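Session log. Operator J.P. requested a structure for one protein chain; no other inputs attached. Running the standard single-chain path with token output.
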Amino acid sequence: MNTTFRALMGACALAALATGATSETITVATVNNGDMIRMQGLMDDFYAKHPDIEVEWVTLEENVLRQRVTQDVATKGGQFDVMTIGTYEVPIWGERGWLVSLNDLPESYDVDDLLPAIREGLTVDGELYAAPFYGESSMVMYRTDLMEKAGLEMPDAPTWTFIKEAAAAMTDKDNEVYGICLRGKAGWGENMAFLSAMANSYGAKWFDMDWKPQFDSEAWANTLNDYLELMNNYGPPGASGNGFNENLALFQTGKCGMWIDATVAASFVTNPNDSQVADSVGFAQAPDNGLGPRGNWLWAWNLGIPAGTQKVDAAKAFVEWATSKDYTALVASKEGWANVPPGTRQSLYENPEYQSVPFAKMTLESILSADPKNPTVDEVPYVGVQFVAIPEFQGIGTAVGQQFSAALAGQMSAEQALDNAQKLTEREMMKAGYIK
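Structure written below.
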């Protein structure tokens, strides 16, 4: 019996060794946003379901992540097995054959539950090339106590004129309270995400129907001048270095009267564990000028699998887990419904528990109001709300963002920044063959 027991134990040990030997390690590149960080703390659930897969994380700041994953996917470098990528990259990369199709996700994944506005942006010729982790638009987050103190009432759908009035009334620089916080950090997905969406509501556009850049238009001058006026008069110091995370920290510590940014921030500014102003936050739609479009964008952070990976099955298992209804329920059970990744599934917004979350309705309304196919007042040859869905935009958008960030830092005038933006965009569009 003793011999039999030893033999059995030996067999178990060999089996354990064999299992260890066949486990795969996948590398996931992701952005340093709160929802992504939270996921890393919930990996026990994934490992319980997939004991044969190990996950290594590479967590990067947004601009750095974009550079790293773009370089890797374009060269089929194989550094990453799963990438966090945006709505801008997915259709361009999918069309080029750089991403693995996700059309074979199991029926239980319920791909038809994905919000059509989000799903369409990730699909090329009927192939789904990424799974949305969270979807967002942008909206106004504001301090209800400061608004009341200023004797004002925020409309559900404010104008830019009201935003200027409220920013002035809420600013108290002696006590380090700034009427408005907006993105100033250069990047096509940083300050230009905000400014492109704002420009849409001012009647501005990146290009006319012949792909000629439009930074020499009155609409762009009005956009940039109003932005600089808001930030210089009522914004925090050093704003040209502030992106999403920096403004989130300012708002959470009570230094912003209003913040116009991603709807996904709502769960962080209302979380009493992180936010000093959690009990006095209100929400409104992004502002407009009565021209049709509001100043809000449409975006999703998605998980995609680069064609260069050797570990497609393990990567798919991770993507399915991280973007599933079960993952949403897991976050809700640990952190509460207010903290689940928003903006991707219809079933979430039909859930009575989620409907009671104070920002759920405004988030959905904002997502549904953004129209990537008709983003501007005038007709344009491109799709995309806060970006232009052409491969060249990544470089052009960041270069233009650097000009506008420099204007915010006081290094040049608005006029000079717009002139530089016009010239550099014209040059790049000629080089790419869009214009002669």
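Operator note: The longest strand covers residues 24-31.
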